[in-house]
Amino acid sequence: MNALPLPTRKLEDWRYADLDALASLWPLPAAEQIIVAAGDRFERAIILDGSIGEAAVQQIDLTLEAGAKAAIYALNIGGQYGRIELNVTMKKDADFKLGCAQIGGGDQNIELVTTVTHAEEGGTSSQTVRNVLGQKATGTYLGKVAVARGAQQTDSVQDVKAMLLDRTATANAKPELEIYADDVKCAHGCAIGELDAMALYYLQSRGLTPADAKRLLLQAFVAGAFDGAVDEEHLQQLALAKLSELIA
Amino acid sequence: MLTINNLHATVADKPILKGLDLTINAGEIHAIMGPNGAGKSTLSYVLGGRPGYEVTDGSVAFNGEDLLEKEAFERAAAGLFIGFQYPVEIPGVSNVQFLRESLNAQRQSRGEDPLSGGDFLKLAREKAGLLKMDMEMLKRPVNVGFSGGEKKRNEMVQMGILDPKLAILDETDSGLDIDALRIVGEGINSIMRRPDKAVLLITHYQRLLDYVQPDFVHVLAAGRIVKSGGPELARELEEHGYAEVVA
Lengths: 248, 247
Fold this sequence. Notes:
A: six-stranded parallel β-sheet; B: six-stranded mixed β-sheet; 10 helices
């Protein structure tokens, strides 16, 4: 059990959370602990789709021992409030990959909060996050990459994009770097935009309805998040169903 | 097939088309030439139903129906094809998926059965072959990483697959090398030169018209057709420039 008091908005990690929904879950159970042994491989798909309740928080502490490889694919499409929190600690030459799509409508609040700590040298991490938000939904990515003093030759990427379908939707994105080593590569990119009007027109000029044109563009937008997943097809299908529901 | 009557259109409140009249019958190929800024591309976008292009006066009938009443996708289903001057790149969406969905959307709205995956690929292979385009390119994302010439050839492959009644081709010849120009020209002829089809070519140059012989040539200047004639008009323009003809 977690004895901490309910967070407030003053805490950076909870600034955009749905605190009312969170109260219904509080106190949260302890985070799931996963340790991937040296040289091992691990893959997990996380799906938050409201099936375990209108509010859901999934917290995972993941430790990668030397040379371990882990991939997490996440699809966050609600309930009312869905939060995925990953704390990843990486030892020497470990490799971590995250692909996540968050798709929300109505007044859903969905968020992904990651801390990836490169504790030792030679680690590689990549995070690909695609958010699609319609109506009054809020989608958040708070992602910190921390590189410890000795973690030279770290190579990390954060690639975060959000697509707003309506002017009333909100996307928050905060890629964050904390680097104490001097020979590392940490790329971080973040973009928030809307569907390209010319692309939509081009597709419609060939006979696609406005809804189908949107669906096709959004499907392509999120597709990259699940590249290489064992469950890729299943994840794509769930994402597509949610996208279709949003556009309808 | 297409009757444009006194068409006026604005873009961002700026009048571009100012009383354009044009009639195209089945079996005819028309070419529109004209100086930069005359309204040639605007005409293709207005006919194609692009948002932001507002018709303020006049009418357009397409096979007896009011074209301007229809949304862009309904115009496509009615048999209108727009060849873009700058075809759009769409990352993540393969040509094959895009075209199959487009064709089947059109067929569905005409009350026809959708084409199966196998039948579609057969059709796509045939049309790609016509334009000397590698099938592998059709599996790649729409226009992404294509050269200017490949994009234009891809437009023609799309035209072949969608099999429209009327094609409006906006500077399909620009950006093409000599060989590609010939291939595209032959493609237009073999796909569209039929008694029940028509083409409106928008172009700056005589070159394309050497391959695709127009029945009529029009000069568009300041938002109106100021002169019409036969193929000889294009050669006259090439020789003397617009100034003399427009004056």
